[in-house]
Amino acid sequence: MADKNLKVDELRQLSDDQLADTLLTLKKEQFNLRFQDATGQLQSTARVREVRRAVARVKTLQAQRKAAASKTEA
Fold first, then answer.
1. Between vectors from CA 71 to CA 74 and to CA 7, what angle results, nearest 5°?
2. Which CATH class is domain 8-73?
3. Which ranges form a coiled coil (predicted)?
4. What pLDDT score was predicted for residue 46?
5. Overall average pLDDT of the 35-49 stretch
6. Domain boundaries in the chain?
């Protein structure tokens, strides 16, 4: 995603596939940030926190959608 700060409202508008792609992108960024931190090249330590929270937001939305889907099937 181009926007660095993902809002919940923006994430809710995404489809399941787009949400999965966003999660993959965030996980890659998180890996790169950890690698930069380990090598001493990390510029913004606050970005680590932002990405971690964005991953949590995406996972929460995925879990909510899965629970809602299973509730409607039952």
1. 160
2. mainly alpha
3. none
4. 96
5. 96
6. 8-73
